Please model this.
Amino acid sequence: MAEKTLKRVDLIFSEDNYREIIEKTFAKTDDEIINEMIDSGLKGRGGAGFLTGLKWKFARDAKSTNKHVICNADEGEPGTFKDREILDKVAQKVFTGMAIAARVVGAKKGYIYLRGEYRFLVPKLLKDLKEFHAIMKAVNFDYEIDIFMGSGAYVCGEETALLESMEGRRGEPRNKPPFPVIEGYLGQPTVVNNVETLASAAMVCKIGSQSYKRLGTKSSRGSKLFSVSGDTPIAGVYELELGMSLQEFVDEFGDGDTKAVQVGGASGFCVPRKKFPTTIIGYQSDLEGDNLPTGGSMMIFNSSRSMYNLLRNYLDFFVEESCGQCTPCRVGTQQLIYGIEAVKRGDKNSSYLDYLLKLTETMKMTAKCGLGQSVANSFSSIVTNFKEEMIY
Model:
């Protein structure tokens, strides 16, 4: 397998002159900005991995007199706390990315959909916004950002459920298509990017796509913030180059007895020790091995941890956070709990786990949104790799 050295990067939390970045970028045409963003290979840092520049292009090309740019700051994935750090330390970088997106798509209004638990950030964000709006006035760009508070619902991290919430309805995912870039907030074209994506977009505009492409791999360009937690002596938020192997990550952040890493939070994949060398952190890649995208959560577990208890906690979380709109998610998550408990008690034999794995595949195909669809990720990876802990 081609080797990729773990490399720490300092783009997101670097000190920057935001007015200078905006003036430099605004001197270019909309097409030049979009093309540079596409050329950089920057993909959405929430985990889905859609090209940022392409999303902006679709919204720009949509026919409407009113358009919007929304920052998804509803950071609710277990084990993820990087966006909080960005908003606390370099919020202006996020505002800069929003302004550049607004200029490209033709938006006059922007919103930060802030996680309800992050209300403590509001006073500082309002102070930072006051400075940002002064920059907008100085560069003669008519653009304003407001804060919209979420109510603590995990499902509102999904962009269409977020839009439903903003429009005063219960946070439930919409059917797609139409996608938000065509019909989003108030039925108007809307760009929804998460905190890290917007901050990264500002950095692409600062250093240029060629410099940005020197980081990462061919299909996973740039750097990524990782929220490192669990059995590690150095928990925290770190910016690392994409394309590293999970073995390199564990060598750097593990405690010497790491048996598993949950990549991508509860909705991600649990990787066992034997697969560390061949698991690459990034999008579908030109490198050999299994490629895992991630929104940034990296939870490390050593040999003292029960993988059954871990899975049980994840399922409790999914049951609690399911919006209940679709049957596969509402009923399926509960049945998975009943199933693993029955196996653990001995009421069902180990072959029943195969039936539960088939159930998660059905959920993956039929659930309406990413919550129900992603239950299969953690369930199948834990049950398959740690089956003995599900039985005894």
In short: DSSP finds 15 helices and eleven strands in the chain. The two ends are 36 Å apart (CA to CA).
